[in-house]
Amino acid sequence: MIAIGIDPGTINLGWGIVRSAGNRLHHVAHGVIRVKAELPLSNRLLAINDGLELILEQYRPVMGSVEGMFFDKNAQSAAKLGHARGVVLLCLERHKIALREHPPARVKRTLTGNGRAEKTQVAHMVRAVLGLETLPPADASDALALAMTELRLDPRAHELEEQQRKNRRKRVPPALAEAIARARAGR
């Protein structure tokens, strides 16, 4: 099973690909999509979309994980992060990748046993579990931690969430479902 973890940002978007084989996790790839801060937001979002599309096509993950929303004191920063998350969610949905969001405390608890662990402690666990020689960049380390969390969770929980997702789709108004089907057929 291959999972992608994504740490969204409008300037630096971290991504990490991890494969599970039995109880073992194996590093596949990681990186950061870096976008020039001086570009207009719409150009940055397009660059993120294009970069993420290439990664998804190359590695073909079947599961995805993104950090759950948090509320920032700076409303403008939170809004920009929301835009980047929207691009990420759309890309994953286009590729029909099962997605779950995890709060930071769950990721920290899954990797270190402590939901209040420091980011550096999580990064060191990522390095140790995946057998990396050096610490990945912070954004990529966070993304790898998300992918690892996704693969470590109880598979029954994932099946339950997938069933709930299918049930939500069934409740889509018929006119909207028809429009979505036409849009997908036009691709």
Describe this structure in words.
55% of the residues lie in helices and 20% in strands. The protein is of the alpha/beta class and 187 residues long. It folds into 2 domains: 2-153, Ribonuclease H-like superfamily/Ribonuclease H (Nucleotidyltransferase, domain 5, 2-Layer Sandwich); 155-187. Strands 3-2-1-4-5 form a 5-stranded mixed β-sheet. A hairpin with a 2-residue loop joins strand 2 and strand 3. It starts with a strand and ends with a helix.
Mean pLDDT: 89
* Number of extended strands: 5
Report how far apart the termini are.
Answer: 27 Å
Q: Output the strand order for the largest sheet.
A: 3-2-1-4-5
The largest pleated sheet is described as: 5 strands, mixed
CATH superfamily of the largest domain: Ribonuclease H-like superfamily/Ribonuclease H
Count of separate structural domains: 2
What is the molecular shape?
Answer: globular
Low-confidence stretches: none
- Our Rg estimate from Cα atoms comes to 17 Å
Q: How would you sum up this structure in a few lines?
A:
The chain is an alpha/beta fold.
